[in-house]
Amino acid sequence: MASTQKQKKAAPARAKVRPAGFPTRQQVMDFITESDTPAGKREIAKAFGLKGQEKIALKALLKDMADEGLLDIGPARAFHKMGGVPKVTVLRIVDVDDTTLIATPERWEAEGQPAPRIRVVERGKRGALTIGDRILARTEEAGKGWLAHPMKKLAKATEMLLGVVEEMADGKLWLRPVDKRIRKDTPISDIGTAKKGDLVLAEPTGRPPRISARVTDILGDPFAPRSFSLIAIHKHGIPHVFPEAVEEEAVTASKLPLHEDKREDLRHLPIVAIDPVDARDHDDAVWAAPDEDPANEGGYKAILAIADVSYYVRPGSALDREARKRGNSVYFPDLVVPMLPHQLSSDMCSLRAGQDRAAMACHLVIDAQGKVKSFRFSRAIIRVAAVLAYENAQAAIDGEQDNELLEPALKPLWACWALLRKAREKRDPLALDLPERRVVLDEWGKIVSVAVRERLDAHMLIEDYMIAANVAAAKALEAKKAPVMYRVHETPGRDKLVALKEYLATFDIDFALGQVIRPSTFNQLIKKVGESEEKEQIMTQILRSQTQAYYAPQNMGHFGLALGSYAHFTSPIRRYADLLVHRALVGAYDLELPAPKDKAIPDRSSLSQEDYENMGRVGEMISGHERRAMEAERETIDRYVAAFLSAHVGEVVKARITGVQNFGFFATVEGLGGDGLVPVSTLGAEHFFFDEAGKALQGVESGDRYTVGQRLELRLAEADPINGALRFELPDNPAPRGSPLKRDRTRPKIHRGRPTNIRHIGSSRGKHKKR
């Protein structure tokens, strides 16, 4: 009886009368499925020419189809096939499967069904999409899965918010961003179980201008050891946890036999690894000795032994897919996010002293003028005699420290390097000796010091040996017409050279644009400046005029090093590009070893067909991952610097101007780094001109001029460890003392845009917009 009553109740819905010419269910479904734009009720009505009462009938039909499980509704009230994906929708890239990007719908509300994993099909060069990017894409079913064809890369407007929970005096909770580029705090609408002071991930809710934050993940205390690195890891979406399958494969791979009988045995040589004192892995070691060949009088032989990572990380393996997804290791002051699991990166692939290790050896013969006469590559077995810090190796050479390896290992290395240095000087690569910051922590993660890294001969020695091996690897592959993952650094573009010319003109330095631009061109400029106060700022501006280096299978040369062919070969533990170069050498020079007995490990260690076919795509991916790592590392150091300086708020410090904009200038603390803003609103009431060409602000009445590179004293007004931001004021301005973390929300807001006391000179409007 109950069943009969239900049927009677349902009968009227089936008996609805549709107007003549009204589309059938199938016609509606076909239109929604085939539409190249989001298909909402309005679009469907327009397609079938429906008006008046027909639109009402359409609304009822769509409701029936949704109730029957035929349709689902997505963003912008557009319909799509139930359990499917809208024809055009917003996707977020969440993973990489080999070289294929995997995306999921940004909004997925199908109850009880997991969001589909959609393969992204890229046509040509679309700006190197990577994990975390949002795209507007056209989707289609393909077999049992879905494909997405990107139409447009979208701004990361709906990224998860990363910040610290703050409670105001009125009891309201706000999310304070960790990104110093975000100047607004966000009110928290749902805090979950988070507490005041917690570092959290939150998703934005609502519509502009009323955006609030809903806390989704609690990351802990922002000042706890390693939190600054965790902030960068989460902000940039850096993969930092290895899947269990990858960890297990690393253990299995680490047990592969070395095949001593099939490798070149170099264990009798006093090979040494020279690395930073805080190095976590050692993937290169060097040896040199006078060449006994009479035909090469005064020349040397050298061997660069590089960890044989390609033997353990094979194409198509879980290890390989994870390494490609990461692209490189990321080095923070307090931790390393390795490209490979620790079983390999800091154990079997790390060239530890006194232990037998698999290596790819680059054998060089160098003549008395420093030219590499010949090279060859072999798979070898080595036993490193010692792992030395740069400082210790230098101290031994300088006679300041005893070392038993001084005569057999270090002196020959330095003698051979003297030859390589001759060739370097003749080549005249770009010589920008700019300081590098180093954050030193104690065992509890507390900052001991922030200092500029000292530049020693030992650093340059290793650098020149590595460059020689990298060039040999590229040329060895070219000789066999094998694929090469080049390290490309192109000649600076005209726009940047024009800007540099305008900047140099403010120092009365002429720079001709019509000349052939070589690295030596910039070196001559630096020599012309000499040791004047402006030297560092001019070198910084020259650096900014350079293009960014990247990886690609097409050779465009390396401008900065003044080399025609260059490939990264010497760091396969921490760079995927080097691993590909190793695989290419294995294949080109028939260096394959017997296949593993364990069938879980792929047979070959040379380039796979997939590696060949996807070199371009992989080059784009790992170049993007490198930029991501550089930004994350730089931001983390900025946070440590801000934390170190937070105890000095209110003090006057020696600073140098690093950048000038129409809203103020940026300065850095001498010897420490970390950029901070001096807002133009704090410079006084007079009008200031913004001289774009001269990178300066100049007072109209006083003539006071603030320009890039200028040294001056500033008061540190704020140091915020959470986002790494500093704020300075002129010493004459009053600056409140106190905790940098407490901010007064009652103070006037700083309005964005050009301040009222700024006028713009130094460039035409059209040119300014174009740049």
Give descriptors for this structure.
single chain, 771 residues, alpha+beta, five-stranded mixed beta barrel, disordered C terminus
Structure description:
29% of the residues lie in helices and 26% in strands. The chain contains 19 helices and 34 strands. The strands form ten sheets. A five-stranded mixed β-barrel has the order 3-4-5-7-6. The longest helix has 31 residues, at 615-645.
Q: What structural class results from the helix and strand content?
A: alpha+beta
Q: What is the approximate shape?
A: globular
Q: Tell me the Rg in angstroms.
A: 31 Å
Mean of pLDDT = 83
Give unreliable regions as ranges. 1-17, 734-771
Counting H and I runs of at least 4 residues, what is the number of helices?
Answer: 19
How are the strands of the biggest sheet laid out side by side? 3-4-5-7-6
- What is the straight-line distance between the termini? 78 Å
Overview in brief:
By secondary structure, the protein is α+β, with helices and mostly antiparallel strands. 29% of the residues lie in helices and 26% in strands. It has a 5-stranded mixed beta barrel with strand order 3-4-5-7-6. Strands 8-9-10-12-11 form a 5-stranded mixed barrel.
Topology:
Blueprint lengths: L1 H13 L10 H10 L6 H7 L5 H15 L3 E3 L5 E3 L6 E10 L2 E6 L12 E3 L13 E9 L2 E10 L6 E7 L5 E5 L8 E5 L8 E9 L2 E11 L6 H10 L7 H11 L9 E2 L6 E4 L8 E7 L9 E8 L1 H4 L5 H9 L3 E2 L4 E2 L4 H7 L7 E11 L5 E12 L2 E4 H8 L8 H22 L9 E5 L5 E6 L4 H23 L6 E3 L5 H12 L13 H11 L5 H10 L5 E3 L23 H13 L20 H5 L1 H31 L6 E10 L2 E6 L3 E7 L8 E4 L4 E4 L5 E3 L3 E10 L4 E5 L28 E4 L3 H6 L1
